Amino acid sequence: MITPLLPTYARADLAFDRGEGPYLIATTGERFLDFAGGIAVNILGHAHPHLVAALDAQAAKLWHTSNLYRVPGQERLAERLVAATFADTVFFGNSGAEAVECSIKMARKYHAARGEPERYRLITVEGAFHGRTLATIAAGGQKKYLEGFGPKVDGFDQVPFGDHAALKAAIGPQTAGILIEPIQGEGGIRPFGWDYLRELRALCDEHGILLVLDEIQTGFGRTGKLFAHEWAGITPDIMAIAKGLGGGFPVGACLATEKAAAGMTAGTHGSTFGGNPLAMAVGNAVLDVVLKPEFVEQVNRVANYLRQQLAMIADKHGAIIEEVRGEGLMVGLKCKTTNTDLVNALRDRGLLSVGAGDNTVRLLPPLIIDETQVREAVGIINDACGALAYQPAKDAAK
Question: Which residue in 45, 142, 318, 351 is a FRET match for 200, CA 20 to 30 A apart?
């Protein structure tokens, strides 16, 4: 018999009552150090006082009016995002998937508005994850997400991860652009490398196509820059963002240059809830914090310390951890054991993490953590790896 809640998630038997900074407290009273961060969402931790105050103040005034009217919070947040990035304009939605959908439509519309409607295809990369809508699962190309949902949405040409020659060869007369995550998140914290991104920018310029970045997971300081592409010294034409933008409140956005957005005129795209006053109040509160220079400085300082500690753990527990990879506080532990075993062992000891592709465990903590919490996490990881390394020998002795 089906449950009242559609059973599309394999949930852990764990529920939370409240959060305090980088910690979650379960309904049982158990306390967990949250290195899952709502899957890279809760960048300011739980119950951050500035976000709580902003949401409370807005909730007492106005929740929703729709986009039939001006929304002052949207205008302010858009202006701040434009000032802080490459972009000239912003569209607000409710999620990362919506942000990518808008990006896909914008890339197609750009060429159609220029008299080249045949240029609608986007090149994507094996292992990518861009969302769960029909278009975004087609863009990601992963069989496990596509199976059972009928014909794959047309318009996406996938190439192997990191294969620049294959990507270059995939560009043809129907190509509208390249859609890529600077670092694959769900794919297993797989960085392409900053030289690769620079090559993509040059390819797009050479062929008159658009570079579309999915920075939903890498944005808002996660990698030690406001956005990951800044490490490469390049800018995209279109960028999808979400997750950290709302710090836990559902909000997404599509950022673009004036040139790339030229075809998106009145009526070409829309959203009932996107950019509502509640979401905009929280988004502006998030920017109040993350745009301070000391914010990313703190991320880099703590990230360097975490990577040093994890390198020692990997050396000590080479039978469990094959590689530590990532950038900033977007860290992947490539496992030799099953990654689910490590996720469970960490959770049993009070540390939350996230599984990912390529047999990897993601560590995506709130960006407000300090060295004390790093030491706590590393101690748990060390203990969990030790227990997993001991288990096979113990089982063999039975």
Answer: 142
What CATH number should be reported for the domain whose range is 49-290? 3.40.640.10
| Domain spanning 16-34+293-396, CATH class | alpha beta
Answering whether pTM is above 0.85, one says: yes
pLDDT in tens, 335-378: 999 999 999 999 999 999 999 999 999 999 999 999 999 999 99
State the CB neighbour count (10 A cutoff) for residue 198. Answer: 14
**Which pLDDT belongs to residue 390?**
77
Retrieve residue 340's tokens: 């689910």
